[in-house]
Amino acid sequence: MKPSMLAAVDVGSNAIRFLISNVEELTPDKPVKKNAYLRIPIRLGTDVFLYGAISEQKQTAFLDAMTGVAHIMRAYGVDHYRICATSAMRDAANGQDIMNLVREKTGLRIDIITGLEEAQILFNANALARYTDVNSALYVDVGGGSTEVVALRDGKLQEAFSFQLGTVRILANAVDPAEKERFRTEMRRLGQTYAPECVIASGGNINKVSKLLEKRDGKPVGAPELRALYKDLLGLALEERMEKYGLNAYRADVIVPALDIFLGVVDMSGAKQMVIPKIGLVDGIIRHMWLNADNLADRACPKAPH
């Protein structure tokens, strides 16, 4: 594929993430270049997990955000793009109507992807490239609405799972107890089957944890460090978390359930440590587009409306 300006958007339950990358070449050990990156803190999941639909207020904010995304794409000269919507938009009763409105107003096409598709795209982000000495690992992405887990052996995908277990869903008290039990059962089984040497973790919350623990360049994090931070955060009020750790309001509440999920994976799978390569769904989308260049005919950046 010739050099291209590509854009990826992750419409998540807790936020929207938008990445533009001028891709000249992608090799397994080369991270996706970030020409522009924007996080838009629109939490769609709260409405959906509590009431089953996205409110008018959030719809307006979302349309404004997508209008801005379209303008920025054109300003950067984006050639092709892909927008993937995950758990919240999947579950929203009015999700399709909202996507149709965005298409009508901005020309942007949004794809709702399943949890397993999400896991596959995350795998395409190539998190293992920097850890060639790791024979077996679990790649875990904790989002606002769901958690994706990929079992890896010798760099190859063995199994992939999506659990309706995410930070915003937990805060909304909207997790099915049966799903919690399925998560626990599978984590124990994966531990017995693959004996993972580490957990490769992704998501905005664990990236923030990496920064708080000053773990640069993918330096491993031990379970005791994670547990100590979790216990400290758990004992603080939201305002205290913001003051002590410099957290934004949109991060101070969800970081605790995220750590709880990650610790659950580490404990139940028997993994001894965690590595945090700071990649996510948008990185996987860019790489997936690059590897599937022949299928981008309908992904051209929309022209400005007259």
Automatic annotation (TrEMBL):
Protein name: Ppx/GppA phosphatase N-terminal domain-containing protein
Sample GO molecular function, one term: pyrophosphatase activity
Domain Ppx/GppA phosphatase N-terminal: 42-291
SUPFAM superfamilies according to UniProt: Actin-like ATPase domain
Signal peptide: none
